[in-house]
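Figure caption, in words: inputs first, then the predicted bound structure.
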Amino acid sequence: MRKNIFLGFLSAAILMVLICASPALAGNADRIEEILGTPQGIPVKEFKIAAKRFEFTPNLIAVNQGDYFKLKITSLDCTHGFKIPGTLIKHVLKKGQEEDIVLHARDRGKVGFECSNFCGIGYFFMKGTIVIE
Ligand SMILES: [Cu+2]
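Bound structure (copper (II) ion present):
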């Protein structure tokens, strides 16, 4: 009898965790996709980003759900990278060479991006966020 009550509470607790965590279960691949080439006839917002040891400037990009937008990223000092974990989006950022990345914001949420090329001791902190509202 006590075991049944315990199992009942346990199932309720697991159900609560699943219900509360469900929005977070949507991965980056559900929220964002890369568009190859510039979409024709669709407005594309542009964001210039500088990459240098160990930061992206700006490191916070805000777009609306459904937006198409272009990140124009230039590395100022060495080879960095740009990747969005949980997706196949990954680009090399060579020094002085602008890299254009066209993205489509599919679903609301926060999408983290980070450097994907080891660039020194602060590499692990070289991150940013795309907020899709
Ligand atoms: Cu880097």
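Residues 17-23 have pLDDT under 50 and may be disordered.
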